[in-house]
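Figure 6 in text form: structure in, sequence out.
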């Protein structure tokens, strides 16, 4: 899981895979060409394809695609810089993890590798060497080049649309929806429960060996390890928690001796915690919501002065918070096996999530009437689905908005 998460947010993996595939394809087509199978000469333009002509085609396509790859990468870096300064540096990962950008870069670099691999097999007659032109390989390069032109047009359209605030908010909202569905599902997934769990004898700590944010936890493997040892693991450092070496990640409980059940090494469980330098919205609900709020709050900066972005952020947040506030979604509390062993989790309180949305807009949007109106609208929607107890929990938010409106 750790490797997959790293690969997802990297610019090197898909180009490496596509590059290897391109080299293999070039070698395979050259090998087929060397067999001089009947019918190869019937391909279009094959009778006019000399060794120098084939070399020119491969050289032109390879050089052009390497140039386009460099230009595309420069455009991507420019977009990353713009996103970081305009919408916040924490949103840059959305562009790095964008599969379309990775595929475009992979296609162009793979085409270059394909062309230079096929080019090495082209021979001009002379000095005892027979002329050889890999007809299939050259024609395949032409087809790939045509596809790359379509990819380039797609990339220009994609990068132009991806920097629009509506597209950015949609990606952030999708991350939030996925995080909420995992932590606060409408229906619990197999093995997960939403019932309260009491952890007895949770005294043996699992401590961090490094500094950083808990990016995510491999819940299934952690639960499987706990189940096989006959223990229950209470996760203390949930995703988004910043830990130092020696900080407690989890506590192990068991009716017997937890360390003995784990073979005397409780720290073996910490390999299921992915600790990195930055928070991610994968299982970090608070951070996923913070990203949406950050887009809106940055629109209220004096240099930007775009309250409509803040209004759109509040409207988008309502789609996530109203079902959560209504009680249709309940937080999962643990992943347990039939014997009651496994993992116990503690997701943020729903009231805390709601306050984390309103507080920044009350602080920074007090002078924008339309932002205040959007905040009151969100509050009204929450009131409509609130129980009496939860409606009372909104009183501090209501008072803060009222005070802000009087300023």
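Output sequence:
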């Amino acid at each position: 899981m750790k490797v997959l998460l790293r690969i997802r947010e990297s610019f090197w993996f898909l180009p490496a895979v596509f590059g290897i595939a391109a080299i293999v394809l070039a070698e395979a087509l050259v090998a087929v060409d060397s067999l001089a199978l009947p019918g190869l000469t019937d391909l279009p333009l094959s009778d006019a394809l000399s060794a120098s002509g084939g070399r020119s085609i491969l050289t032109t396509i390879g050089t052009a695609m390497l140039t386009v790859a460099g230009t595309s990468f420069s455009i991507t870096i420019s977009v990353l810089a713009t996103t970081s300064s305009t919408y916040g540096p924490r949103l840059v990962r959305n562009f790095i993890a964008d599969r379309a950008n990775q595929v475009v870069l992979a296609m162009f670099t793979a085409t270059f590798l394909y062309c230079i691999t096929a080019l090495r097999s082209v021979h001009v007659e002379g000095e005892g060497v027979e002329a050889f032109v890999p007809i299939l390989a050259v024609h395949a390069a032409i087809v790939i080049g045509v596809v790359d032109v379509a990819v380039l047009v797609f990339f220009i359209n994609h990068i132009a649309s991806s920097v629009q605030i509506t597209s950015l908010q949609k990606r952030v909202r999708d991350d939030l929806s996925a995080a909420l569905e995992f932590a606060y599902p409408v229906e619990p997934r197999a093995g997960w429960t939403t019932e309260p769990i009491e952890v007895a004898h949770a005294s043996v700590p699992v401590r961090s060996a490094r500094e950083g944010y808990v990016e995510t936890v491999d819940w299934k493997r952690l639960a499987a390890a706990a189940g096989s040892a006959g223990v229950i693991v209470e996760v203390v450092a949930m995703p988004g928690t910043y830990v130092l070496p020696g900080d407690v990640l989890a506590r192990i409980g068991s009716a017997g001796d937890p360390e003995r059940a784990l073979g005397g090494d409780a720290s073996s469980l910490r390999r299921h915690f992915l600790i990195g330098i930055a928070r991610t919205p994968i299982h970090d609900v608070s951070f996923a919501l913070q990203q949406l709020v950050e887009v809106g709050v940055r629109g209220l900066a004096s240099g930007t002065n775009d309250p409509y972005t803040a209004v759109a952020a509040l409207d988008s947040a309502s789609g996530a918070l109203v079902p959560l506030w209504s009680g249709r979604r309940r937080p999962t509390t643990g992943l347990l096996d039939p014997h009651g062993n496994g993992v116990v989790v503690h997701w943020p309180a729903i009231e805390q999530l709601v306050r984390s949305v309103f507080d920044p807009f009350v602080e920074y949007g007090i002078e924008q009437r339309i932002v205040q109106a959007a905040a009151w609208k969100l509050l009204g929607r929450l009131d409509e689905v609130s129980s009496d107890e939860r409606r009372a929990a909104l009183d501090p938010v209501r008072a803060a908005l009222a005070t802000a409106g009087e300023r």
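Caption detail: The mean pLDDT is 84.
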